[in-house]
Amino acid sequence: MDPVALIVPQAVRGLLAFGERLGARACHARRLRRNGAPIPLAYAGQLLEELADETSMEGFGLAAGAVSRYEDAPLGGDVLGSPTVGAALARASAVSSRYCGGQRLRIIAHGANVLVQRRFPDSLRRGRRQANDFALQMLIDVVRRGVGPCWRPAELRLEGPAPGHAEEIAALSAGSTYFGAPADCLVFPRSVLARRLPTASGVTARASAPLPDLDFVASVREAIRSLLDLGQLSVPKVAEAAGTSARSLQRRLAAEGLRFTRMVDEARFEAASRLLRDPATRITDVSFELGYTDASNFTRAFHRWSGSSPQEFRRAARIDPAVGAE
Q: What whole-number distance in Å separates Cα of residue 274 and Cα of residue 80?
């Protein structure tokens, strides 16, 4: 089973901001802004789907991509500092999976043409077309930096059936647009790769830290921590992030000698210990942050994890900051 696909939150924040400008109130947007840790790609897709629904825009990803700048992408400065279009696309191919786990970007020579093929992992189901549309616009933006703002690929080949906004997508192509391909693909003359990119300027966004190189178990732990912080933690949510069923996820963990409930307890204790060190955070607020509707249930759980109450832990940590730290 592949590791859970994660994405740096910087890649999603611009989409949230665009949706909010249109009046959307995406669930958990505040928590996502606060969360600097990687989030499951499947959760990012869920947000995109919610934004499309709230704005009544089936082509939300396309519209967001049209007004976004590649400079603000997690790898924007890295890619736009390249000397040519070809070098920029090659750089994007080399590093894109470091910011969006499981994403594959390939540059394929095909006679006088070149195919730029990009595909998200199968675990991205909800919001997949929106994510594809946004990524498509971003790739076109890179080429336009060297060719001109009106440039369009000679042909588009896109995965999945034609959506309701297929005509909007087709308008991005100078020629034919085909649906039902195994991956999204831009086709254009190879000569475009040699076009020079202007010297990068105005790249103000600081690149996100790349995703850690995680095995399956470590990636599940990361997904649990992230979904806990986002208020979305459940077995089905983690299984969705892993692109599998809840039963298969638990079977795989059992094969590693692990139980999902134990991993959740560890993540909750880690988060609770961090929050309790802030004297301005009330214990009832810590309880709510960890998904407990009753503070007494949290107190009992915390005593089970640590052998002390939250109040006792807080007093001990005030005297010795090393208490509960690993």
A: 38
DSSP string, 187-241: EEEGGGGGPBPPPP----SPPPPPPP---HHHHHHHHHHHHHHTT---HHHHHHH
Burial of 279 (0-12, 13-18, 19+ CB in 10 A): exposed
In the chain, list all ranges with CATH 3.90.1520: 6-194
Distance CA 88, CA 80 (A): 6
Is residue 210 classed exposed, middle or buried when 0-12, 13-18 and 19+ CB atoms within 10 A define those classes? middle
Q: Which amino acid is at 324?
A: G
Q: Name the segment(s) of the chain with CATH classification 1.10.10.60.
A: 216-319
Pairing label, strands 184-189, 113-119:
antiparallel
Q: What is the pLDDT of residues 66-115, one digit of tens each?
A: 998 888 888 888 888 899 999 999 999 999 998 999 999 999 999 999 99
Is 3.40.50.300 the CATH number for 216-319? no
The answer to whether 71 and 205 have CB atoms below 8 angstroms apart is: yes
CATH fold for domain 6-194: H-NOX domain (3.90.1520)
Kindly report, residue by residue over 247-277, the tens digit of the pLDDT. 999 999 999 999 999 999 999 999 999 999 9
Task: Record the pTM.
Answer: 0.89
